[in-house]
Specification:
Blueprint: H1 3-22, H2 29-33, H3 44-52, H4 70-93, H5 116-133, E1 139-144, H6 147-159, E2 164-166, H7 185-193, H8 198-203, H9 218-228, E3 231-235, E4 250-255, H10 273-281, H11 283-288, H12 298-305
Parallel strand pairs: 1-3, 1-4, 2-3
Helix pairs in contact: 1-3, 4-5, 10-12
Length: about 300
């Protein structure tokens, strides 16, 4: 039988099974299996029906199998991506963002090798052009799990004529110098461990105390290029830790590949004795409690700080 003939055959068998069930007759699973081509994915309607009727030996599929060709799936995928971009453009034109309306969220799970990233990049190109023409936020934040993929994405965007940059994290190696983007990672880690504002406590502010490496900091120097880029490519960590760039003019955020594992924080323990060291290190606290320098027990330090 041709695939079309076999599908009609399956439909007829389903009708016969349903008729037997409605008449209260016993359904013989052996007789059903004798009419099926073993392993044919087109059998799923019978398995689903028999599982629903609790016929022994049949288990319902969790989802309808993908029977379409790769080409047909690719066409449908591109159509869905275009639909998403159209909805985002309409949302911006309606002024929903300015009115405080919650943003739109879309998720798509597509098998490998179908060109989903390439298709989204082409539609992002269209989004940037149409959003800019309409006076809507047109910039794009594109998030990837690792920098190898970031380099590939940057190359593809530039081939499309899009101005894109890679936002590199503090601990990422700067391709130019071969050193980390931030030159004082120990200070960064200490600040993050106590949930301090890294920009203020480590990098410093104009007119106030500053990091000794601030003048030549490759991490902060990215901000100028990022300010004029249409697409900023960053690691998915940006979903869970802020990056020092304005996000008010981003019109869309694309997360390429899985990301949720990055949001699972490892357990951190804060020891009681660490509060005493904080007091000794911090000039403001130290000036107000000079007598705490190793003289008063940690428990008293905690009581004083609260």
């Amino acid at each position: 039988m041709t695939p079309e003939q076999y599908e009609k055959h399956i439909a007829a068998v389903c009708d016969q099974i349903a008729a037997k069930s409605n008449a209260g007759e016993v359904i013989d699973p052996t007789a059903i299996n004798a009419r099926l081509e073993a392993g044919n994915p087109a059998n799923w309607p019978i398995h689903a029906l028999c599982a629903k009727l609790r016929v022994p030996g049949f288990h319902g599929p969790r989802h309808e199998p993908a029977l379409a060709s790769a080409a047909a799936v690719r066409v449908k995928m591109v159509r869905e991506i275009q639909n998403v971009i159209d909805k985002v453009l309409t949302w911006h034109r309606s002024g929903s963002g300015d009115a405080g309306v919650a943003g739109l969220h879309f998720a798509m799970h597509v098998d490998v090798g179908l060109g989903k990233s390439s298709a989204v990049r082409r539609e992002v190109h269209r989004f940037i052009s149409e959003a800019r023409a309409a006076g809507s936020p047109h910039r794009v934040l594109w998030l990837v799990p690792h920098h190898r993929l970031a380099d590939e994405t940057l190359k593809e965007f530039r081939l499309l004529g899009i101005k894109a940059i890679i936002w590199r994290g503090r601990d990422t190696i700067d391709p130019g110098s071969g050193q980390t983007m931030c030159r004082d990672l120990d200070a960064i880690n200490e600040a993050q461990a106590v949930h301090a504002d890294v920009g203020k406590t480590v990098c410093g502010t104009q007119g106030g105390p500053q990091c000794p490496f601030r003048g030549g900091c490759q991490y902060l120097q990215q901000k100028q290029a990022a300010a004029s880029a249409d697409v900023i490519i960053a690691a998915t960590n940006a979903l869970f830790a802020p990056i020092p760039i304005s996000v008010s003019d981003f019109g869309i955020v694309v997360v390429d590949e899985g990301f949720w594992q990055r949001g699972v924080q490892k357990k951190r323990d804060i020891t009681l004795s660490s509060f005493a060291s904080d007091v000794r290190r911090n000039p403001v606290l130290a000036n107000g409690a000079a007598t705490l320098r190793g003289i008063i027990p940690s428990s008293e330090v905690c009581r004083w700080m609260t």
